[in-house]
Amino acid sequence: MIDAHVHLWQLGRNDCSWPGADLPAIHRDYGLADLLARLDANKVDAAILVQSQESDADTHWLLSLAAETDRIAGVVGWVDLTGDVAARVAAMQVAGPLVGIRPMMQGRAPDCFDDPELAPGFAALARHGLVLDALVRPQHLVSLARLARRQPDLSIIIDHAAKPLVGDTIPADWHAAMADLAACPNVACKLSGLLTELAPGAGEGAAAPFIAELVALFGPDRLLWGSDWPVLTLASDYAAWLDLACASVPVAAHRAIFADNAARLYRVTQGAAA
Length: 274
Known about the structure:
Blueprint: E1 2-6, H1 32-41, E2 46-50, H2 56-66, E3 72-77, H3 85-95, E4 98-101, H4 119-127, E5 131-134, H5 141-150, E6 156-158, H6 172-182, E7 187-191, H7 207-218, E8 223-225, H8 238-248, H9 254-265
Parallel strand pairs: 1-2, 2-3, 3-4, 4-5, 5-6, 6-7, 7-8
Helix pairs in contact: 5-6, 6-7
């Protein structure tokens, strides 16, 4: 089993500026020992470690952690997409198992993926065999779909299903935009982050229909489960989210969604997760 989305950070080090004191539940260091204990407690074999800071230093620190254990199957790092992307990611790939780049677009303009200054960076990611992890919100999905069609050789994974408001009804605009992206064969989606997007008063069960819609849209071969731990702890806990996801996904799709898809899309060996 592979957890496709976990974070680690050290407050005040490696350019770490988030989370702040306004999030006291997670305003502390999370290190490799914390992660391995969480994986062991939930019988998870390996994880994909995802950046949380817009910093090369953070990425290199994560790569150094991956060198300490094969339980980290790969690292999704950060790079400035307007810089010399090819040279910087090549250096990162030498340093450790870099499998993707996450530019953190959720705070940018809705059409940010159409910015011509970013086009060479996206092309460099594709040439280096790296996944674009798309940290976005629903308003970015139309622009992301245009990128997916312009750059069909770029593998794109939508983080946290684009953070829809998870309540009693499925937002029609989110569903339509996700359906359009699902029509692109180079786009996959992480089954993660839904519980931290619960509408006020909504219970965790409200996420189940969203999971069902994602399975229907992307099928069993382009969904991959991630905990988003420790951010997840702002809304729930690891075991509860894993249980909910397992119960909401068809049993026949469990191996694909909880292991094989992460291994294939991030190009990591199943041996690292066995």
